[in-house]
Design brief:
It is a single chain. The protein is α/β, with parallel strands linked by helices. The chain folds into 2 domains: 123 residues, 3-Layer(aba) Sandwich (Rossmann fold), CATH 3.40.50; 96 residues, Winged helix-like DNA-binding domain superfamily/Winged helix DNA-binding domain (Arc Repressor Mutant, subunit A, Orthogonal Bundle), CATH 1.10.10.10. Helix content is 43%, strand content 21%. It has a 5-stranded parallel sheet, with helices on both faces. A hairpin with a 2-residue loop joins strand 6 and strand 7. Helix 2 runs parallel beside helix 3, helix 6 crosses helix 8 and helix 7 crosses helix 8. The longest helix has 20 residues. The radius of gyration is 18 Å and the shape is elongated.
């Protein structure tokens, strides 16, 4: 089932979008803040993001910028009441795939969603990240070394996805916990350490001397590739 992340802070609009998309057969997750949108988008696999520009805290432009800088290639459609050409150009320059101005026709939005999904299907299915002898296939949620599928848990894959999307950046244990386990889950920092040890054992050429999953003392972890 095609998964759509709706980022909208107005409950009435969010409800209407969710109901309409579910009627069309999509699986829908709703976020109401920019921070939640970034966390969900980087830690889970969505086929498309509907992103309102006018959000509390981080606005849609900031969210779009953060997701693209994090390496996320998921199609993004911006939803906004802003109709100025400069605003549209800025959104597209930041990496959005399309721009729909409120109020919009549900029929038109559905057509734009289908078009964005068609454009994104080939790109997403071809999205394979490689380092050393390892391939991370995000479309299939598989990890392969030398062509052989590695037995990797769902949590390990979520952590690996966060690392790949944020490669070169230091991530704190709290950020990794939020991204892989989610909010309000009672786990401690040691759980992150244990899962990273497991990823090293499965994916590092020399697990005792890691060169990809690096511990940055006093700060957290960084993925280099």
């Amino acid at each position: 089932m095609t998964r759509v992340l709706v980022v909208e802070d107005e409950p009435g609009i969010a409800f209407a979008l969710e109901a309409d998309l579910r009627t069309e057969g999509y699986s829908v997750t709703v976020a109401s803040t920019g921070d939640d949108a970034i966390r969900l988008a980087l830690s889970d696999a969505f086929d498309l993001i509907l992103l309102d520009v006018m959000l509390p805290g981080k606005d849609g432009f900031e969210v779009c910028r953060a997701l693209r800088r994090g390496g996320l290639q998921t199609p993004i459609i911006l939803l906004t009441a802003k109709a100025q050409e400069a605003e549209k150009v800025m959104g597209l320059d930041l990496g959005a795939d399309d721009y729909v101005t409120k109020p919009f026709s549900p029929r038109e939005l559905r057509a734009r969603i289908k078009a964005a999904l068609r454009r994104g299907t080939t790109r997403d299915e071809a999205e394979i990240f490689r380092f050393d002898d390892t391939e991370v296939d995000f479309a299939r949620c598989e990890v392969r070394r030398n062509g052989r599928i590695i037995d990797i848990s769902a949590l390990e894959f979520k952590l690996l996805t966060v690392f790949v999307r944020s490669r070169g950046r230091v991530l704190t244990r709290d950020q990794l916990l939020d991204a892989a386990w989610g909010d309000n889950v009672a786990v401690n920092d040691r759980a992150v350490d244990n899962h990273i040890v497991s990823l090293r054992r499965k994916l590092e050429p020399a697990p005792a001397r890691p060169r990809h999953f690096l511990n940055i003392r006093g700060l957290g972890y960084r993925f280099d590739a």
